[in-house]
Design goal:
This protein is an alpha/beta fold and 185 residues long. It has one domain: Rossmann fold. Helices cover 41% and strands 17% of the residues. The chain is built from six helices and six strands; from the N terminus they run βαβααβαβαββα. Strands 1, 2, 3, 4, 5 and 6 form a six-stranded parallel β-sheet that branches. α1 links the parallel β1 and β2.
Amino acid sequence: MYTIAIISGSVRTGRQSHKVALYFQSYITEHKLANPEILDLKEFNFPLFEERLSYIANPTAPQQLFSEKITHADAVIVVSPEYNSGYPASLKNAIDLLYNEWHHKPIGIVTASSGGFGGVNALALLQNIFLKVRAVPIAVPFPVPVVQNSFDDNGTPTNKEAMDKRAAAFLKELLWYTEAFNKMK
């Protein structure tokens, strides 16, 4: 069974996107699709980016752990809110910390916003950034509009049937990429 790292990209108080990360962890576990693990950037509490991990003389234990988790994951789901038409600095900081770890890693991008477009601006920016670090963002995105009304605090969707239908299509694509890239190793 594959391992999927789910990066919860916001560190803000009252963050809503973390609920989406909890949802994906639950959905993947419930449907026995993979072994999901949330990598919560709020818990990692990285210092402001100064240098890539490979050039840091004495990396912190959280930096090393994050690198190991991304390296050993077969795929990654990145859950990002959209703030002011972009993604949070915490997420950019974590992406830039690594480089070789992202190489040929299938990436499913999930964005969330309080508005009706579901973070599509952040989504487009993240797709480009992941291409630059040689990762492989999948073609099926997962934008979540009006996120504050879409999940409870535990990540349970208010419209489970509709959310599960979208998640199934998204994860089918991510797992296809995961299988394809696993065969190429």
